[in-house]
DNA sequence: ATGACGATTTACT
DNA sequence: GTAAATCGTCATA
């Protein structure tokens, strides 16, 4: 697996990790750990196995497209490592990690985790019957809204500073980004109406992970056929 | 004030 | 495969 089983104390990822190019951060986050401390002290954690990059005012699919700025997405203009949590479809939360700087409202959407600590407590947050087609563990955090349920991430955590918070932060499980040979790349999910941007290869996943939100389409080696 | 629309998930035919 | 659930946000009036 990606992480040695007895989890030793891992260093927290510094703000500088998130201050880089957004695609670089989206790739480098794969295999790192997202950690949540509940008010009662319970610690929940999962390895990040799927991300998407959202590239700001030019990106038709981004919430900051055309410099759109409002109370909802204000955290996108905060410093790197700020958490942007939004509410959608009347019932779901999704969480992003803000990148670069205040002049570039860009972020990485965290789309799936491999649970590594406190599976039982995570299951309490999820409101589903047992999956028949996947083991309970692989269905636990296999989607942006599922992982927010499992880790109890809501709008209350919007604007949290992941570099300093004791409620939500990132830990380093690996010093280098995964090798490209282990990263699957594809178009982002759920943005079909975003024109050219819908086809951009801005979704990244740990190749062959059973915890992904959806399989990655096979990459065509040739443009014909 | 009103209506359309989600960076989704679940259950079911 | 399709549809329902459910409501904050935003554009239009």
Overview of the molecule:
13% of the residues lie in helices and 24% in strands. Strands 1, 2, 3, 4, 5, 6, 7 and 8 form an 8-stranded antiparallel β-sheet that branches. It is globular, with a radius of gyration of 17 Å. It has 225 residues and is of the alpha+beta class. It binds a DNA duplex (13 and 13 nucleotides) through residues 52, 54, 61-63, 68, 70-72, 86-92, 94, 96, 109, 111, 127-129, 143-146, 149, 188-191, 194, 213.
Summary keywords:
alpha+beta, DNA-binding, 13% helix, 225 residues, 8-stranded antiparallel beta sheet, 8 strands, 24% strand, globular
Cα distance spanning the termini: 36 Å
SSE sequence, one letter per element: HHEEEEEHHHEEE
Per DSSP, the total helix count is 5
Query: Which geometry do the CA atoms define?
Result: globular
Which percent band covers the strand fraction? 15-25%
- Nearest-angstrom radius of gyration? 17 Å
Question: Low-confidence stretches at least 5 residues in length (pLDDT < 50)?
Answer: none
Give the proportion of residues in helices: 10-25%
Report the biggest beta sheet as strand number plus sense, adding barrel if it closes: 8 strands, antiparallel
Assembly type of the chains comes to: single chain
Mean pLDDT: 93
Structural class: alpha+beta
The count of DSSP E runs of length 2 or more, i.e. the number of strands, is 8
Topology:
Blueprint lengths: L14 H4 L3 H7 L4 E5 L5 E12 L28 E6 L3 E7 L8 E11 L1 H7 L10 H5 L3 H7 L17 E4 L11 E4 L16 E4 L19
Antiparallel strand pairs: 1-2, 1-6, 2-5, 2-8, 3-4, 4-5, 7-8
The chain binds a DNA duplex (13 and 13 nucleotides) through strand 3, strand 4 and helix 5.
